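Worked example 2:
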Amino acid sequence: MSEKKKTKYVGKIEELPSKTIFINVNHLEKGNYELNIVQKNKLILKTTFIKK
């Protein structure tokens, strides 16, 4: 009889963020806003939202 092949599974979980940023929109005036997140002078996230 032949032996069964053993399969090895490996997974990698990236480190979870240890810091949290809160943006309190209660103090903003009503209107359209654009949020730009920049790291090392490069735009990494651009999103828009509406304060009603």
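The chain has a mean pLDDT of 89. The longest strand covers residues 42-51.
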